[in-house]
Specification:
609 residues; alpha/beta; ABC transporter transmembrane region fold; Rossmann fold; six-stranded mixed β-sheet; four-stranded antiparallel β-sheet; 19 helices; 10% strand
Length: 609
């Protein structure tokens, strides 16, 4: 199958997606079969049966009407005589029309559970896979575009099922049945005329629709561009406010919408051309069929009712064909949307459990032993990472990583959490290579308090309890108190049920960091990672939380990233990084005595203080 190709780990480019029809149908069938809908096979069989019954009824109904008209006989006074045969055929005509009209409703009632379950399964699988992808992918993706790929791909499954299986497919069945009836009841020339009309209709429709796809592609690109701009602006409104960039972003959004308007105008113009061409072909075909029937009646080969049957048969075929152009375009777009979703699911996560991955050894109660053994890692988009880094933190120890920006501290933290795997060397946790351990065990054993804590748009209780969903209210409150959040929470009208807003923006930076600390404390990890965890706090609060952190270090190992050296003077070991390499390590006193880079940093910070 031709799959979408991505220009980068996070790119999702709709215009680059290709599709292969039968491979896409295989993907769709597989999705349907694992949709989990109740009585799946029975519902599919019943729906397909109803489709056939409905189309067969729609083809036979005009024949019944024609036969009914043919039974009419002239009366002596110039009228017509309605016999029992006419009444019965008329009733049969109405009953068959009723069956043909109601069969789709019954089919939808039976099959909706399957189509919706398929759509939900596609969305859940793709969303889950997206969350499993690497850190690099999520750092380079555009959130708005990615969410649209998931949403469009999931909705495309429902549309393709309804259009291909319950619209175009049944229309083809109806065409075959109608041609058989025309050959048997009318004349083979009627069947040929209907067939040629429909072939011309389909050919013109597909040709013009293919031409229109470029307009639709431009429309999608403009829509994606506008959605991406608005999403980024709304997520980063503090930054745009701080730099007074509202008008600039509104202008950029207006430009994207102007492109959308231009693309939409071109798409609508070409749609009008398509509709006019379709109408011309259908009406020429209908006129030809009517004239042919008239000649046959005048020659005594057909009866008046047969003309009615022919016109009704052709009109019955025209009804679904009126949407052929729309369906063809949407089916192609749906196939592309589904292929984008499938291609996204084919991106392999960088971090996966090994086939023989085992559980992390039980906690000792003294903290984790973590070791970097000649670890090297180089980022694709950066020239620096880590080069031959070796250090060890014994259970219960506090190890601090210091150094200038870009020295590799954050990379070391991500390796310690196994958000990245080293390209050389290994990282061990309690003596086991992290690559050989199940990720679920690592996530339970390690907790991070980042410099910029991101919160969910939920309550304080939900955000703190996110670390342990089974925690009691008392445990969540205890963690909040340990992070010095107690007085703040008590002063809120809704207390722990206060909603924090998008990404926690209703809270100050310091309050968000305290919530992050509380969340990490609730997790009760054996390895606690603090990435400048008190950088946004005022002096008294920072001192209080530093004292709290000293208390909670008991029974766990702590890895600290620090720029303010005053916060890590009591660390058991300080590792100084520069350009990805360790330049020195030791205790605070040892490093000051060495008079190296750490001592220079210390003198600079104390002089500034």
């Amino acid at each position: 199958m031709m799959r979408a190709r991505f220009s980068g780990p996070g790119a999702v480019a709709p215009q680059e997606a290709k599709f292969a029809f039968w491979d896409s149908m295989a993907d769709l069938l597989a999705l349907v079969m694992r949709s989990g809908a109740p009585q799946l096979r029975l519902r599919i069989a019943a729906a397909l049966t109803l489709v056939f019954v409905g189309k067969l009824s729609g083809v036979i109904a005009p024949v019944m009407l024609g036969d009914a008209i043919n039974t009419l006989t002239p009366a002596a006074q110039g009228g017509v005589i309605l016999g029992a045969q006419f009444v019965s055929l008329a009733i049969a005509f109405a009953a068959l029309r009723f069956v043909a009209a109601c069969a789709p409703y019954a089919r939808d009632a039976i099959f909706t559970r399957v189509s919706q379950s398929t759509m939900a399964r596609a969305a859940v699988e793709t969303f889950g896979h997206a969350l499993s992808l690497s850190l690099d992918f999520h750092q380079t993706k555009q959130t708005g575009t990615l969410s649209r790929v998931i949403d469009r791909g999931a909705r495309a499954t429902d549309f393709l099922i309804r259009s291909l299986i319950f619209s175009l497919g049944p229309t083809f069945v109806e065409l075959v049945l109608a041609m058989i009836v025309m050959v048997v009841r009318l004349d083979w020339r009627f069947a040929i005329t209907a067939f040629v009309t429909l072939v011309l209709y389909a050919a013109i429709t597909f040709r013009i629709t293919d031409w229109r796809l470029s307009h639709r592609r431009d429309l999608n690109e403009a829509e994606n561009r506008a959605a991406g701009l608005s999403n980024d602006a709304l997520m980063n409104y503090e930054t745009l406010k701080a730099f007074g960039a509202e008008q600039r972003l509104v202008s950029a959004y207006g430009g994207a919408m102007a492109q959308y308007v231009d693309a939409s105008s071109k798409a609508n113009g070409s749609l009008n051309l398509l509709n006019a061409a379709q109408s011309l072909i259908l009406n020429v075909g209908l006129a030809a069929m009517t004239v042919m029937a008239g000649y046959e009646v005048s020659g005594g080969h057909l009866k008046i009712g047969d003309i009615t049957a022919a016109i009704f048969l052709l009109s019955g075929l025209y009804a679904p064909l009126g949407m052929l152009g729309f369906q063809y375009r949407e089916i192609r777009q749906g196939l592309i949307d589904m292929e984008q979703m499938v291609s996204l699911k084919q991106i392999a996560p960088d971090i996966v459990d090994a086939p023989n991955a085992r559980a992390l050894p039980p906690a000792s109660g003294q903290g984790a032993a973590i070791a970097f053994e000649d670890v090297s890692f180089r980022h694709d988009a950066r020239s620096s990472g880590l080069l031959g880094v070796t250090f060890r933190a014994a259970p219960g120890q506090t190890v601090a990583l210091v150094g200038p920006s870009g020295a590799g501290k954050t990379t070391a933290v991500r390796l310690a959490m196994r958000l990245l795997d080293p390209q050389e060397g290994r990282v061990t946790l309690d003596g086991v290579d992290m690559k050989d351990v199940q990720q679920a065990g690592i996530r339970r054993a390690v907790a991070l308090v980042p410099q910029d804590v991101a919160l969910f748009n939920d309550t304080l209780h939900a955000n703190i309890g996110f670390a342990r969903p089974d925690a009691t209210a008392e445990e969540v409150r205890a963690a909040a108190d340990a992070a010095e959040l107690g007085p703040f929470i008590d002063g809120l009208p809704a207390g722990m049920q206060t909603r924090v807003g998008e990404r926690g923006l209703k809270l100050s930076g310091g309050e968000r960091q305290r919530v992050g600390i509380a969340r990490a404390l609730l997790a009760n990890p054996r390895l606690l990672i603090l990435d400048e965890a008190t950088s946004a706090l005022d002096g008294p609060t920072e001192a209080a939380i530093q004292e709290t952190l000293r208390k909670v270090r008991a029974g766990r190992t702590t890895l600290v990233i620090a720029h303010r050296l005053s916060t890590i003077v009591d660390a058991d070991r300080i590792v100084v990084l520069r350009r990805g390499r360790i330049v020195e390590q030791g205790t605070h006193a040892e490093l000051l005595a060495n008079g190296g880079e750490y001592a220079a940093l210390w003198r600079r910070q104390t002089r500034e203080a």
